[in-house]
Amino acid sequence: MGWGLVGVGRHAERFIVPAMGKSASGQLVGVFSRDMGRARQLAERLGCPLATDSIDALVEDARIHAVYVCSPNNVHKDQVVRAAKAGKHVLCEKPLATNARDSLTMVEACRQAGVKLGVGFHLRHNPVHMAAKESVRSGVLGTIQLAEVQYMHVTAGSEGRRQSVAWRRDPIMAGGGSFMSTGVHAIDLLRFVTGKEITQVLALADEEWRSSGIERLIQVSMVVEGDTLASASAGPMKHPLNHLVLYGASATLRCTGSIGNNGGGSIEIVSDDGTQIRRFDTCDVYEHELDAFADSVRNGTEPSASGYDALRVAQIAEGVYESLRTGRAVPLPADL
Ligand SMILES: NC(=O)c1ccc[n+]([C@@H]2O[C@H](COP(=O)([O-])OP(=O)(O)OC[C@H]3O[C@@H](n4cnc5c(N)ncnc54)[C@H](OP(=O)(O)O)[C@@H]3O)[C@@H](O)[C@H]2O)c1
Fold this sequence. Notes:
This protein is an alpha/beta fold.
């Protein structure tokens, strides 16, 4: 596949461009920047033939088959819809949009155009989480009673804070703070591994949310269908120790070292038979994500994290922010 890349900022430079270099999904053909000079510099540095400051020129170029959208959250919608209308498959960064209404518009645009819409929930592509999902499916854990997931990110030092982009502190552009940053990954991981829907949320955030609409620390308690209680937390920490723990009626499963930008980690399962530990080598989850997306295009299957998954996460996010505003638990619609 020929890839077009929209929004070559921190995430694209650190993870997506290197992953495209390794991935068997295809090659980078074109870059879009709002600044033509930057587009040319990027294309030269990244070795791709097309540089443009016109999103339409990018999505209409015949050499491009799929567009990777890696721009600020609130501009995803317009870019995804334009790519879909030009008949291009889209892999869009998370969150798909800043609200459920825009997410639905994007899902519908891709459905009507007959193109695939994948979403950058990269944790699904870590073999650790695939194995955890398989353990749940196999029944070895028994009924899951309690689930905990934590995706904290490393506190930015002074240099990081200086570089930190303004849109992340703008509630209109980002849609929220840490929940929109890593919290949505935690929620998607919970849905992915358990295969169950979240039916109710109750959220607490630090005081920064009240003053700016951008929370730093957030904790969400949830009910998952079938009566599982769950919790998710997100925010900056000096030394994150992220994990996913599933307490089942027969066994407890814990994933460690697997929730972050690198793949790999380990799974520990504690049961009456003792403790089993499986370790997984480090891998590039973004490369796996690109390969899996190309497979879904080739085979006509739904991407692992589809637009519908992202729409559901957007509905959950709306429930979370409603809960922060009202201080109440928010039931979620059963259907999309
Ligand atoms: N899955 C993950 O692990 C992960 C991790 C981090 C971020 N992300 C997601 O990736 C996306 C980008 O995050 P980032 O940290 O890379 O942001 P970033 O560093 O600000 O880069 C975004 C790029 O988008 C373009 N842009 C900025 N403002 C724009 C606007 N108003 N309209 C159109 N384009 C604009 C800029 O490129 P030009 O100036 O060249 O146009 C900028 O370089 C976000 O959706 C974020 O949530 C995902």
